[in-house]
Amino acid sequence: MLKMLESSAQDAEVVCRELDCGTPVQVLGAAAFDKGDSQMWTQEIQCRGNESQIHLCPTSPSHENNCSHDNDVGLVCAEIIHVRLVNGNSPCSGTVEVLHRGQWGTVCDVGWDLADAAVVCRELDCEEPVDALSDAHVGLESGPVWMNNAMCAGSESTLKKCGSVIWGFQGVCQSKSAGIICSGVRLVGGSRCSGRLEILHDQTWMSVCDAVFDQQDAEVVCRELDCGAPVQVLGAAAFDKGDAQMWTQEIQCRGNESQIHLCPTSLPHKYNCSHDNDVGLVCADRVNVRLVGGNSRCAGRVEVLHRGQWGTVCDAAWDMPDAAVVCRELDCGEPVDAVGDAYFGPGSGPIWTNPMMCTGSETTLKNCGSVLLYEYDCNHNTDAGVICSGVRLVEGSRCSGRLEILHDQTWMSVCDAVFDQQDAEVVCRELDCGAPVQVLGAAAFDKGDAQMWTQEIQCRGNESQIQMCPALEKHNCSHDDHQMLQCADVMHVRLVNGNSPCAGRVEVLHRGQWGTVCDSSWDMPAAAVVCRELDCGEPVDALGLAHFGQGSGPIWMSLLTCLGTESTLKNCGSGGWNKPLCTHNHDAGVICSGE
Questions:
Q1: Which residues contact 468 (CB under 8 A, 6 or more apart)?
Q2: 3-state SS assignment for residue 499
Q3: Which fold has domain 391-487?
Q4: Which PANTHER family does the UniProt entry name for this protein (predicted)?
Q5: 135-174 pLDDT tens trace
C-alpha cells in the first residue's frame, strides 16, 4: 500500500495514464478511501511524470517515515471518455473516433454492425442505435485507423472492451471510416416502442410537454426508434411523471425527418408545463425480420428490414444460434434447421449482413454481431434460411409436454381426440426429438390456458412439419382434453472408434445423417460440451488430425465457437452447416474423463 509521503503530482500523472483514466484530479491522504490491509510499500517513488507505467519510475531506498495504514494514499483521476462522434448532425451521430495512446483515430468499417454501434451509443449515453454506417457515410477522416473488424457482443460497457482483429491497423481500410446514428430520444416506463418521451439535449435527458408535441413529431420519433408508425400520442403523464428537466422549445416536425434533432424548433413555448403534462407515445413496434418462400410463416429465406428496404442474410457462419434468434423474434418456437445455399430460393436486393455471430440469446437478429470473412463471397445463391418448429411441448422437457401448435401467430392447444400416432411421428421429428414414446391425453401435464386447435390433424407420418399435414374442419374439445406427448429425445452426438464410450471421433447427427466435425478452432470448451452432452464427465483432451481415424460422409461443422456452457454441440456457433474448411484428415476427437 502506498503512503501519502511518497506520493506526488508526477506519480499521480503516471498512475492515471497507466490506468487509461486521463489526468489526475486529486491526490488524497489520510486513508480517504478506507484503510487497506496489504503490506506497506517501503520505497519512495520518484516519477518524472512522463513514464507510461509506475514500475518504470525510479525509487529510492527504504524511507525513514514511520507510516501506517492511517496514511494510505488515494487518487481521483478524470476518467475521460475514449470514444466520440464527429461530423454528425447531432451529439449522437457521426464518424466514430477512439482515443488510443493519447491520439484520436477512426474505426475501420470492416465488420461494423449494430452490435458495435450499440456499445458506442451506450458509452455516450445516447440510447439505442438507429444505424451502423460504413464506407465513410458521415465524413472522411485523417489520422490513424485504431480498430479493424470490431467484434462486439453488444453488451460491453466501452468499445475498447470489444474484440478487434488488429489495434493500430493501417492499410486496407483507407478512407472507410465507421459511423453511427444513435436515437437521441427514448421511451421510458413502457416497452421498447412505448413510454414517456425523453429527448437528449446537451448531455441531459429532458421530458417533453404534451402541448408542444403532435402527430408529425410522433411520426419522426417512431421512425427514429425503428418502431414503425405511431399508434397513439398520450398526454397527462400517461406513463407516470418523470423527474428529468422539461424541454422548453416547441417541436415543429414536418413528419418526414429521420431524427427528432433534424426538426425545426421555436423559441421557448408559452405553455406552463409540469411533469403532469409529460407526453407519452405508443408506436406500432413492427417486426424487422421475415421468412420468405417457405411452406409456413415459420420457415423460409431470412430477410431483414433495414433503412426501409428488405434484404437477405449471407449464409457464411449461419448456424443454429442465429436461427434461434430469428425463431424467437417471430415467436415461432425452436429452430429445427439453419439452412444456406439459397435453400428457399435466391432473394433480390441488398445482402444486408456479413456472416452473423449470434449467441442465441439476443432478442432480435439486428442485435447480433457480424464479422467480415474475406475469403467468402456472398451473393443471392448463398442466402440464409431457417426452419422453425411451429410446434412446442410445454410444462415438461424439451421433448415431452403438452402439445401446442402455432396458428395465425397464436399458440393453440391440441385436443387428444384429433391426434394419433402418425401425428406424433411428425411432431417428434420436427422437434428433432427422435421417435414418439407415448401419446398421453386427459391433461397429463396440467391444463393449459391457450386457445383450442379446432381442426382434426391427419398426418401420414412421413411429413417433416406438422403444418404440412392435411386437416379437417372443426372438432369440439375442452381444456380437459389437451394432447400430451413424450418423444425419445435422441442423442445428436456420438464418439466413434475410441477405446471407451467416452473417447473417440466426434460425430454429429444432422438431417438424419451422421457426419464429422472439422478440427479448425476445436478446443477444450467444445470438448466440454460434448462430454457433458454424453454424460461423460470432464474433458481431458480435445484432439484433431483424425486422431481416432478418418470418418466418412459429410463434415457437418467447422470453426466451432463454444463457450463450454452450451447444453449441446448444435447450440455452439460455427461456420455454418456443411461448409467444411478441412478434409477427413482433420476430423476432431475428444477424450472425456468418464466420471
A1: 295, 296, 426
A2: strand
A3: Mac-2 Binding Protein (3.10.250)
A4: SCAVENGER RECEPTOR DOMAIN-CONTAINING, SOLUBLE SCAVENGER RECEPTOR CYSTEINE-RICH DOMAIN-CONTAINING PROTEIN SSC5D
A5: 655 444 567 888 877 878 788 888 887 766 556 555 556 5
